[in-house]
Amino acid sequence: MGKLKFSMAAAGLLMATQVWAAEPDAAHIKAAHDLLASMQAEKMLRMTAGTSHYANPAQRAEVMDKVIKIQPEYVYSHLALPVARLISTETATEMTRYYASSYGQRVLHHTYNSGPSLYDTDPEPTAKEKVELNKPAFQKANAEFKKAEGAIHHEAFLLVAEINRKPAQ
Predict the structure, then answer these.
(1) pLDDT: is 95 or 13 the higher one?
(2) Packed helices 72-86 and 41-51: angle between N→C axes, nearest 10 degrees
(3) Residue 100 belongs to what domain range?
(4) Predicted local distance difference test score (pLDDT) of residue 28
(5) pTM (predicted TM-score)
(6) Kindly report the CA angle at 31 between 156 and 163, in degrees rounded to 5?
(7) DSSP string covering 15-51, please?
């Protein structure tokens, strides 16, 4: 099963990088940085570290200690370029707006603070929030973001591995 997940993540990364093969400019990287900040990517990094497999509990504790000590800005700046390669500037901007909204904040809180579940159980949006979620710009951005999400999580995993390789401070 582990090989299947890796293969799917690699395929997602390959497809996403084929779409955005051009090197992103500074504005594109800034938009990706802002997206990572709005989605609280440091929490995604902690989740990635927490759900990874380790040789023993001591190694898990060591990695988690390192990841918890990482400043959020470090995560945003290190993931901005890889994420900018995966999604467009428009998608990053629209998804930043979404995660900054009250509904996006509730989704993030639910994502990072709920226990495991068998299926996705996002909070119910209000009528006004449903209107925002049905706008074509958001629908397009959300679809692109969902396609790149596996590759984004893979980039977070690579950052956890990089942090793990660094000596403890």
Answers:
(1) 95
(2) 90
(3) 2-165
(4) 96
(5) 0.82
(6) 25
(7) HHHHHT-SPP-HHHHHHHHHHHHHTTHHHHHHHHHHH
